[in-house]
Amino acid sequence: MLNKTSMKGKLVSKNEKTIILQTKEGQGTIPIEEIYNVKVRNFSFLKSAALTVLIPIATYIGLALFILILGGGM
C-alpha cells in the first residue's frame, strides 16, 4: 500500500535521487522513488495586479457605504 503523504514547500534543490523542499517546519528531503505526483503553481502577474487595484477600491466603497448607513450626511 502506498503512503500518500502530502508536502507543501519551495524547491531548494533536486538531483537524480532526491528533492529537497523548504517547508514551514524546515527542510525536507524526499527520495525520488517515493514521489507519486508533483504540482507546480505558477505566478500570475494579472491576478496579483488585479488584487492590488481592487482591494483599495473595495475598501473605499465599503467605507463610503458604512458612512452612509450610519447617517454621515449631517
Overall shape:
elongated
Distance between the termini: 71 Å
Query: What is the strand arrangement across the widest sheet?
Result: 1-2-3
Could you say which structural class the secondary elements and strand pairing correspond to? alpha+beta
How many strands in all?
3
The sequence of SSEs as H and E is EEEH
**Main beta sheet strand tally, sense and closure:** 3 strands, antiparallel
* Unreliable spans: none
**Number of spatially distinct domains:** 2
* Strand residue content: 15-25%
Oligomer: single chain
Number of helices: 1
DSSP helix fraction: 25-40%
Question: Can you tell me about this structure?
Answer:
With 74 residues, this protein is an alpha+beta fold. The chain folds into two domains: 1-39, no CATH class; 42-74. The protein has one helix and three strands. It has a three-stranded antiparallel beta sheet with strand order 1-2-3, with no helix packed on it. The longest helix is centred in the C-terminal third of the chain and has 25 residues, at 45-69. The termini are far apart. 0% of the residues are buried.
Quick take:
The protein is 34% helix and 23% strand. It is α+β, with helices and mostly antiparallel strands and 74 residues long. The protein has a 3-stranded antiparallel sheet with strand order 1-2-3, with no helix packed on it.
Chart the SSEs and their pairings:
Blueprint: E1 10-14, E2 18-23, E3 26-31, H1 45-69
Antiparallel strand pairs: 1-2, 2-3
